[in-house]
Structure formats: C-alpha cells, structure tokens
Amino acid sequence: MRTRLHRRVLLNLLGLGVFAFSVFPVYWMVLTAFKPTKDIQAETPSFLPVHVTFSHFSTAVHADGFWLFWRNSAFVAVTGVLLALVVACLAAFAVARMKWKGRQAFILMVFVAQMTPWEALLIPMYVIARDTDMLDKLPTLTLIYFMMTLPFTIVTLRGFLNAIPAELEEAGQVDGCNQFQAFRRIVFPLLAPGLLSTSLFGFITAWNEFAFANLLIIKEQDQRTLPVWLSSFSNTFGTDWGATMAAATLFMLPVLLIFLVLQGRVTTGVAAGAVKG
Amino acid sequence: MAVVQAERTTADAPTAPTKPVGDRRGRPLWVRLLPYLLVAPTLLGTAYLLVYPMVRNLLISFQKFGIGQLIRGGAEFVGIDNYREIFTDDKFWSVVGRTFVFTAINVGLIMVLSTLVALLINALDRWMRLTVMGGLVLAWAIPVLAATTVFQWLFQSQLGVVNWALVQLGFEQFDGHAWFADGRSTFAIIVVLIVWQSVPFAALTLYAAMTTVPRELYESAQIDGAGPVKIFRLITFPILRPMFGLILCLEVIWVFKSFVQIWVISQGGPGDATLTLPVYAYQIAQSLNRYDLGAAISVVTVVLLTLVLLAYFRQMFKEEGEL
Amino acid sequence: MSRHALATAAVAALSLTAIAACGSSDGGSDAAPGPTTIDVWLMKGSVSDDFLKRFTDDFAAKHTDVKLNVQIQEWNGIGPKIIGALASKDAPDVIEVGNTQVPQYSASGGVVDLTDKLADLKGDDWIEGLAGPGNYEGKQYGIPYYAANRVVVYRKDLFQAAGITTPPKTREEWLAATAKLNTGGNQGIYLPGQNFYVLAGFIWDEGGDLAVKDGDSWKGALSTPEALKGIEFYKQIQALGKGPKDSDEAKPTQTDVFAQGKVAQMIAVPGAAELIAQANPALKDKLGFFPIPGKAADKPGAVFTGGSDLIIPEASDAHDAAYTFIKELAGEQWQVDLAKSMKYVPNRTSLASQVGADEGTQAMAAGAANGQATPNSPNWAAVEAKNPIKEYLTKVLTGGDPAAAAKAADAIITDALNSGK
C-alpha cells in the first residue's frame, strides 16, 4: 500500500513539474501585461499580480489601426484556411477512399511539400506577385497561407477519414445513395469536428506569419496584418514591454480560445492517421 | 474540456485498414477519372503556388541576382557559380554539420521527453491529467514570436528571472551572467525553447495514440510479471510504431526548418554558434542581398532534408502500397 | 537593431500617439490634369503629429498641384520593404532612409540621381554625416533630412551628492566622476555591452575607424592599435556600472533601467530624457546633459551622426512633384522648425545657430561638431544586420582577448563589405 501511495505522490509531483514548466513563460507574458511599467524591470521580480493595471491593454487596443489590422488578419487567415480545407477535403477523400494510379506519388508529394523552406521563397514570390500585379492585395496572402497550410491539412484530414469506417458509406450506398450523397450525409457529419480542428493549425500558421505580410503589402498600409502591427508596436512605444506583452496576449487570445475548444480532436486526427500508417 | 472527448474518439477509432470503395471492373470513365479530378485543385494550387516559385528560386540560384537585378531585372545566367561558391566555402559545410547536430539534439530530446510526458499523463488521475494537458496546450498556443521574446527576456543578464532565481538559490556567480555571450549557452537556450514549444504537440498526440492500446494487453502483461520498461518495449512501442514514425518525421522537418526562434534570439551568433541552414540562407539573402546565393542554399536545404527523410518515405511508400 | 534605436528612442516620446496616415491612396497614376498625389514614407519618430500637420497645411497652401499622402513606416523589417518598394511598379514617391542604409539603395540603380539639384538645395552646406552616405560614386542620391547624435544623460542630484560640480570634459575626469558615482547601489553609468555606435566614437577619438577603404576593397579596421585603444576605454567605462555585457540598449530598454532611479549616467540622444520622465515623473527635473567627453578638454568626443536621408525611387511616376516635396522639407523653414520641435540637428551647418537650444540640444550640437558616419559602402547595412561588432564587444567585455576577437570581427566585416564584387 505504501509504495502505491508513494508512487501516486511522485507521479503527481512530476505532473505538477511538467505543468509549471510548460506554463511559466506564458504566465510570465500575461503577468507582465498586467504589471505597471515601473514593476516590469524591477530588481526583484514579483511572481504574483500585486498591482494590477489594465493600462497596457488599453494602450494596445487603442493603438492606431488595431481593429483594422485585426480584421485583415482574420480575413487572410480564415479565407486561406477555408480554401485549404475545401481543397484538402477533396484530395483527402481521393487518397483515403479510392484506389488510383499515382496515389503513392501524390502522398509523397504532399509530404515533400511540407518541407518547403518558405523563407527562401520570399524573393521569387515577390517577383511573381509583382509581375502579375498582385502586390498590396490581401488575397495574395490568402493564396500563400492556403499553400502553406494545405499539405498538413491533407495529411491530417486523411487521418480523420481513415478513422471513419468505409463500411458506413457502403451501407448508405446500399440504401440508395450514390457515393457522394453517402459521403455528404454520413461521413461529413462525422468529419466535421475533424475539419474544425485541422483548420486550427492552418489558422495558427496564417495568424502568425510575418515575412510575407511585410514584404508583399508595400504601399497600402490599410492592408497590413496583426503580426506586422505587433512588431511595429514594440517600436511605437520604444519597446514598452508591458504594452508589447499585452498586445501579444490579445494576439494569442483567439488562437487559445479555439484551441481550448478543439484541442483534443487535432491530436486525435493525427493519431488516427498515423496509426493507420 | 475537449481532451476528454479526445480519448473516447480515439479509443473508438477502428484500426482496420479502410477498404477502397467501388469495384475496379466495369466502372464508367468518369468514375475512373474521379480521383484525379478530386486531387486536381491540390495539384493546380501546388503547381502555381509552390512548384512555380520553387522553379523561379532554382532559376535564381543559377543567375547573378542581387538587389540591382531585382530592381532593374536583366539577371545574367552564371551556371553553377553560386553552387561552386557555397560548396567551396568551409563555413557552409560547418553550417550543414551544425544543422544536423542541432536537429538531432532537438528531435532526440523532443521524442524522449514527449514519450515520457505522454506516459506520465496516461498514468495520472483525471484531474491532474487535465491540468497537465491544459498546461501543454497553453505552451502550444502561444505565438512563436511571443514565446521567443519571453525566453529571451527570462535569460536577460540584468533583471532576468533566470539569473535572479539562480542567485536566490545560492549560485552567486550567476549575478549578471551573460547567457547570450557564449555560443554554447545560446545554443542550449534555443534548444530549450524549441523543445518547450514542440513537446506539447508530440506528447498530446502520443498520449492520444496510447489511449487506443487495449487495456487488456497491459493487464495480461502485468500478470505475467512484466515491468513498466518491458511493457513499453514489448507492447506500447510496437503498437505505436507508425505514430512514432510520423511524429519523428514531422519534428525532423519542423526543427530542421526552425528559423524564427534562432533569428530573433541570436541571428545565428554569437560567432556562428547557432547558425543553421535556414538562418544562413536568410542571412545571405536578406542581409547581404545575395538572393542568388540564398536561393542556392535553400535548394541544397531541400535536397538534404529529402535525403534525411528518404528512409521514412520509402517505408511509407511500402505501407501505402499494401493498401 | 540598427541605428534606429536612436531615432526611435529619441522621439518615441514625442510621437506616442501614432500618426494616422492611413487612407487609400490612388497611387500617382492620375496623368490627367488636377493635382498629382504623391506618397511619402516617413519613418516612425521622424516627425510629430503637430509638425506634420503644420507642414502639410503649409504645403497644401503653397503647392495646389501636389497632394500629399504621408505614411509612417516602422523601422522593423523596413530593409526588405524598401527594396520591395524600389523594385515594384508602383513605388512611393519619396522615402526616408536611415543614413547608414542609404548607400545600398543608391548603388542598386533604383533611386533617382539628384546631383543636378545640389545647388538648388544649397548642398555645399550639408552636414557630412548625412550628405556623405547619400553620395555614391560622385552622384548624390540621398538628400540630407535630419540628424541626431548621442550625449551623456545624467542625474544632476546624484552628481551633486557625489560632489561633482561641473560635468567632466575629458576622459580622465569622466572615469573619475563615474567611479565616484558607482557606489551605494547606484550605477555610475549604464552602458550596455553592445552599444557599438558608442564604441565607434571612442575609436574615432583615437584616430581609428571601423573599416577603411584600400583602393577598391574594404578592410575591417578593429584590430588596428587605435581601434584597440578605443575598446580598451569602452571596457573601462562600461565596468563602472551593471550594463549587460551581451545586449544592446534596446534589450532591456535603457531608459526604463534609468527610470528605476539607480543609474547616474547613460549615453543616449537627448530625446531619451522625455521617455525617462514619462516612466518615472520624479526624475523629470533632475536630468542634465553633457557631450561625450573627448581625449582633451577642448574637443568633445567623436560621435556617430545618426539620421536620415530622403530618396526618390526611379519607379515613382511623379519625380517632379516628389522633388517639390523634398525641397520644402529639406529647406530652411522646415529644417529649423523640425530641429526645434523634434530636438534634431538640421541638415545644414549654417542653420544650427537658428535653433535656439535647450540644454540637451546644446550638448548635442557641441558633439555634432565632431560627428562622423559609418563606412560609406552599399554593404554596410549588411554588416549591421548581423553585427560582428556587437559580438566583438561582448567577447572582449567578458574577458576575451581583444586582439584575437578584433581580428575575427575584421574578417567578417571585410567579407561582408566586399561581398558581391
């Protein structure tokens, strides 16, 4: 009995250790956002919110263009991810449910596409956008974010699809549906949570992207996105850490909310996909 | 919380291979063409948004292409000069070596730690489990740029929390210790940061997969007197092997390509202590405005990464073939 | 972080409310009669809201044929963005460019040559630290806009308490005073280890330089005996405080550290005082300024002249209207106004007398007399982008062998400056 109790205590302590280690940097960021400027660079750091202030948040929210850039970011992230979802859904269906020549090569291509070093494509992308008059346009970013997220989306969706027994569709087909009706009525509802959670990854990628947003939106300041604004922010206030951290907290909030709602399903999808090989 | 559902869904997920729908014989043409139509948007998108820029990139790597050529056009073809320039540069090879070491250390740590964390979560009570998973999710959701800034800040030499804590613990020599002055400690901090950011995904995914292993297998093994190590070696690992494979593959790709963390913290320095291939390519392209050399380096990066993952791809190919 | 820490910190206080310069522009594409609209990029912190309004109102009254659309750009990520603008088909018509970065754009062929406007703009009177970098191979591409340089910001009360009645004028006096101040939990001076513009000043004082041109190629010059003496002094003065040896003045923000109230001196542009007072109002009336001391009492220390030039991209479709704008902003009336309202050094030496000065501006002007620029090479921006001088400083301050570290840094500088030739 005693050893079992020891084991429990030890495991819980380990669990607390892991928790503390993973949370501390995040906690520090949020805490700083609530600290008065004078306490931020203090000789003796305080680890609890003693003097709470909302002034940094108000500075951040009232900074010029916050809501406009918020909308722009939401637009490029959502459209890019939606496009990726639709396209990936079709491809994942073909890969998971059909047998065709070139399927292996296609899967390989998707994996190789995942390895793209995007930073290296800045200049070619710029040249292409310039020559096709796509500079300074948010849809250009949509397309790029679509491509950045597409490979992972296909891989994960394929995992989700594999986890849904094909027999369900066959049963539907027996009942008089064709393959697509069967897909829409039976598989799609089961797949919906998977679609949602898969989109999260894409969303994070698009939401955070800086280099392309900075280079491809040149003259139209109204088309800038949040990460560009966020980086500018630290300069606006002469690196005002409190305001920067408040901005980063606000910036992370939507991602966190979606995460908390969907988190489990993401791993499930990947897990299902992988267990399938 | 959604994590609870995760366990259930995964546990319910069948592991039997999916049977392709439809019969090969006597299918009309459109049915046979259907899969190609379905992947067509992906192929078109990839062709225009990925392959085409890649080809342009490849083209640039064979040209003399600097800021002048970008602005005025008229880049001249120089054959393999750019490749010759990087291949004859000792610095390039040391960067390649460092990139491999960097990837190996990070991925090794990520795999070991995330496996341990996943096993720990699996062994915890419900509430503790949710707490730990919640913590991991937080670490996962924080934007890379913000996390990097916070880490940099924790390790500041003056007024940094890490130094403060070490001094409180009695290590007086850390008062004002300059972490980023030394190549090895900068390297170590970046490793800690990347591992910290990567473990949540890997651990949560592995844990989700572990819940699919039938309990009975463990129980019978325990009855046979197998210890935890033996159970992991004989049951958990073999069942989850494809999962370990996928995570390994993804982590190798992600770590190899890590850029933001290194660029923000050290820009590859001090000296070249943290200079890896993506950082090197960016440095040359964007700081020196040698877009041609940067293009050549990125081409080599893709080739190297493909070679590293060749074994995994071959394995995947074989398994896909069996379906 | 490049030289912009300077401009940014200097005026962040004055421009806390960001300037609303958004609004869709219709490019400069209207060839039809009616006013030409020009897009102007100014950098964050180069003008205050107030100044901009006064300027644009006056401009609109004087030049009815030109419509101004001023956009304020951020320093972060500006390099690729300006290159992107220069290479685009529809570039802004005037761009403000940091003076250490202007050579690379001049050399690129994407910037309009304004040599024939020199007389019109009274170019023989320009301050060297701005005109030099704007000049590439004998042609003037960058038009001097404004300058600022570093001074010592100090706490009058702490000086008094330590019995120091007059600000130090020589290095010896400075070291002695700083050592005296460096007691009782106070830092004599807060000097981060990687403030390489300060190092540059010490090196220039000794007669050395960061890099020298030898015929057609550049050579890093940190390992010359003069430069080594410069870093020796940096090490001495830096040790009289707790400035982080592995970081620059932005991490942590030095004005915040100063605002904690435990620092007697720091090296910054005079505008930094506003930021300190804002973070800690109690210090507002306790701040003083003096020029960085030189080797002898009659000559203040050499300083890096920070500042900006204005350029017109070739890709702009309204070169004449753009020039009209430049002529106004770089002309006497607005230069004097700008220098007064933003605490800058105007672009022409003869205008300095018109800028009636407060203590900070006076200290800056005294130092500006001995102002210098970074090596005039299109590749200098590349050196700053991954700054080997900062690493060199850290290495020496943490006990490394200066000669060996200087040699290593020189190799990188030489390499970067000669790259692409």
Report on this model:
The complex is a heterotrimer of chains A (277), B (323) and C (421). Chain A is built from twelve helices and no strands. The longest helix of chain A has 36 residues. Chain A is mainly alpha-helical and 277 residues long. Chain A is globular. In chain A, α4 runs parallel beside α7 and α4 runs antiparallel to α9. In chain A, 78% of the residues lie in helices and 0% in strands. Chain B has a two-stranded antiparallel ribbon. Chain B has a domain of 164 residues: MetI-like fold (Orthogonal Bundle), CATH 1.10.3720. With 323 residues, chain B is an all-alpha fold. Chain C folds into two domains: 213 residues, 3-Layer(aba) Sandwich (D-Maltodextrin-Binding Protein, domain 2); 187 residues, D-Maltodextrin-Binding Protein, domain 2 (3-Layer(aba) Sandwich), CATH 3.40.190. Chain C is globular, with a radius of gyration of 21 Å. The N terminus of chain C is likely disordered. In chain C, α10 crosses α11. Chain C is α/β, with parallel strands linked by helices and 421 residues long. Chains A and B meet through α1, α4, α5, α6 and α7 of A and α1, α2, α5, α6 and α7 of B. Chain A: It is a multi-pass membrane protein. Chain A: This is N,N'-diacetylchitobiose transport system permease protein. Chain A: Belongs to the binding-protein-dependent transport system permease family.
Strand and helix map with partners:
The complex is a heterotrimer of chains A (277), B (323) and C (421).
Chain A: H1 2-34, H2 37-40, H3 55-62, H4 66-97, H5 103-114, H6 122-131, H7 138-163, H8 166-174, H9 179-208, H10 211-216, H11 226-236, H12 241-276
Chain B: H1 2-12, H2 29-61, E1 63-64, H3 67-72, E2 76-77, H4 81-87, H5 90-123, H6 126-141, H7 144-154, H8 161-168, H9 183-210, H10 215-223, H11 228-239, H12 241-256, H13 260-265, H14 277-287, H15 291-322
Antiparallel strand pairs in B: 1-2
Helix pairs in contact in B: 2-15, 4-15, 5-9, 5-12, 6-9, 9-12, 14-15
Chain C: H1 4-12, E1 36-43, H2 49-62, E2 66-73, H3 78-87, E3 94-98, H4 102-108, H5 128-134, E4 135-136, E5 139-140, E6 143-148, E7 151-155, H6 156-161, H7 171-181, H8 196-205, E8 211-214, E9 217-220, H9 225-238, H10 254-262, E10 265-268, H11 272-279, E11 287-290, E12 303-304, E13 306-311, H12 319-329, H13 332-342, H14 359-368, E14 371-372, H15 380-385, H16 388-397, H17 402-418
Parallel strand pairs in C: 1-2, 1-3, 12-14
Antiparallel strand pairs in C: 3-13, 4-5, 6-13, 7-10, 7-11, 8-9
